[in-house]
Amino acid sequence: MSGGRKGYRKCDKCRRNRAERFFVSKRGRTCSSCRKRGRSKTSHELRMSRTYGLARGEYDELLKAQGGVCAICEQPRRQRLSVDHDHRTGLVRGLLCRMCNGRLLTSARDNPETLRSAADYLECPPAVSIIGRRYHTEDGRP
Ligand SMILES: [Zn+2]
Ligand SMILES: [Zn+2]
Fold first, then answer.
1. What spacing in Å lies between the alpha carbon of 9 and ligand 1's midpoint?
2. Which CA distances in Å does 117 have to 62, 109, 120, 122, 140?
3. pTM for this entry
4. What residues have a C-beta under 5 A from ligand 2, the ion?
5. In degrees rounded to 5, what are phi and psi of residue 120?
6. pLDDT tens for residues 38-68?
7. How many angstroms is it from 138 CA to the middle of ligand 2?
8. Domain 29-131 in CATH 3.40.1800.10
9. Distance, CA 129 to ligand 2 centroid (Å)?
10. What separation in Å is there between the alpha carbon of 60 and the centre of ligand 1?
């Protein structure tokens, strides 16, 4: 009997003692969590290459160049960043979070002028120059 609790085995990858059911077979050396992680990394690369023509490692290269964050909002995300591309030409533009890719750019219809004008609007709200600093309150009182 080789050490450890009965029915438990040490995974070669994560070095955790895991129950027998986490292994594919009696001889399996890597637990299912580690196998899944390995697969998803590979399948992600495969998808990147099929869909966007990114070579192996290019996604990581882009991510590193962007400092590991979304190219627009620069917020670190737990979810993997999406490969943003121009829907008309297919040009790969960079890596974006779901909010920026799915909401921000979609709302602005990928129009740089709209986004520039949105930035101007926020920095210099037109109402302030017309009616002064008026504040909205829920109950209508000033
Ligand atoms: Zn493991
Ligand atoms: Zn973002």
1. 10
2. 28, 13, 5, 9, 29
3. 0.65
4. 70, 72-73, 97, 100
5. -60, -45
6. 777 788 888 888 888 888 899 999 999 999 9
7. 30
8. yes
9. 31
10. 23
